[in-house]
Amino acid sequence: MCRNRNPLLCAVPPYVLHEVAARGTERQRKWALKTLSADTTIRHARAINTKARGRKGPREAYAAFAAAAAKAKRNRVIWDARHSYAVSGLKRVRDEGDPPVKDKAVNEAFDGLGETWDFWLRAFSRDSIDDENMPMRGIVHFGEEYPNAFWDGRRMVFGDGDGEIFTRFTKSLDVIGHELGHGVIEDEAALEYHGQSGALNEHIADVAGIMVKQRKLEQTADQADWLIGADIRGSEFHGDALRSMKAPGTAYDDPRLGKDPQPAHFKDYVNTVDDNGGVHINSGIPNHAFYLLATNLGGRSWQTPGRIWYDALRHPLLSPTSTFTAFARITHRAARQRFGTGSDEAKAVREAWAEVGIDWE
Amino acid sequence: MRIEVRQQGGFGGLRPPPLVVDTARLDARTAGEIERLAETLPPGNEPGRGADLMRYDVQIDDRCATFFEPDVPAPVRRLLALARDAGRSA
């Protein structure tokens, strides 16, 4: 596993590297940061392998890991809130292995969680939200005409909408992928939900949702619509969706909801106290960078761009309070690590961020 | 009594126009229920863990309280529902 790398580095635990990065001399800090960034992917793979294999050689380890991945099983549970606002003590209406039921929302949530679980496993070898087969819990029919879906730290909760502006939130695979994405983000990076880190949290959840949808539809980046929430629009919603990663700020213009406020460029960053400091507003900036990268590289969004973003999400340099620029630099570093310093992929990452006004020396 | 409800957040991060209810313009039964709920409005709650949660800012005359999903107290839910219905019929 340590081939082409200083074997000593493999023996240094990350918390020691973090300490050196925080307290060492300039030279030590550089070494520690470089080691941390180089080490993260292999370290994580090793952690997974360790779980699967005990202490075996690399060949056996790979076989054990593949076997573990093959054994990974979906673990879904759906509850029915019956239009109450409760999230516990509810009737369990469908478990893994149960046949479809009459209730569409139950089946949509169940199937959407299954698609999302498949996506994470097939694209990134990730076993559920925590990579340890955490059950995927969903609650449907939350509240009365409730126009929302949310992640409460343990489960995804779906409302039915009012039927006019919004329909059932379970109808949309990108909504389900987005909400489960919040669980993955919380598990990996715990990005604080306000300001730029909060907008990054929303952005990565949108990336997760759009990748799940595009994989299901077998779309390449240039074939996709890059719209978030198009399937939950009711008959009286004026617009194409709730967000557009392709053209932030153009998704809707509605007499009751106003106009899509998302900026596409950092110069238009919205400073506000609303919406936890504009987490759903300013996410338009990194969303657009991801779109630019995916369409520039071509192919499937969850392959090269998604892989880079996933590496960045798990990067030790990503902190709960990371800014846009910090995240951009980490994605660039992740691309260099995976594809090479002078690679087209790394260059494309830097160009995509520069196009939305985020650059660094 | 004047009641104003501002909603924000959620999956869409939407900020619809505030709902403004003047109980003097409602039928006596609805107005009475809204006023009773408003007079006993709790002081608000803290935001919980999670993402895409709704937030409600409720202003009653010169008092204001903020409530976060999913732990909005039942009487506040009732007040929000009544305000929504009153807003619809206005």
What does this structure look like?
The complex is a heterodimer of chains A (361) and B (90). Chain A is of the alpha/beta class and 361 residues long. Chain A has 12 helices and 9 strands. Chain A has helices at 7-11, 14-23, 26-53, 58-71, 104-124, 173-188, 195-216, 275-278, 284-297, 304-313, 324-339, 344-355; strands at 76-80, 91-95, 136-140, 149-151, 156-158, 227-228, 243-244, 253-254, 258-259. In chain A, the strands form 3 sheets. In chain A, strands 2-1-3-5-4 form a 5-stranded mixed beta sheet, covered by helices on one side. A two-stranded antiparallel sheet of chain A has the order 6-7. In chain A, helix 5 (104-124) packs across helix 6 and helix 5 (104-124) packs across helix 7. Chain A is globular. By secondary structure, chain B is an alpha+beta fold. Chain B has one domain. Chain B contains 2 helices and 4 strands, in the order ββαββα. Chain B has helices at residues 28-39, 74-89; strands at residues 2-9, 19-22, 54-60, 63-68. In chain B, a hairpin with a 2-residue loop joins strand 3 and strand 4 (63-68). The longest helix of chain B is centred in the last third of the chain and has 16 residues, at 74-89. Chain B is globular, with a radius of gyration of 13 Å. The two termini of chain B are 16 Å apart. The relative contact order of chain B is 0.26. The model of chain B has no long low-confidence stretch (mean pLDDT 92). The chains are: A alpha/beta (361), B alpha+beta (90). The A-B interface holds A 85, 87, 144, 147-153, 157, 169, 175, 178-179, 182, 186, 193, 201-202, 205, 229, 242-243, 256-258, 274-276, 279-281 and B 8-17, 48-54, 69-70, 72, 74, 77, 81.
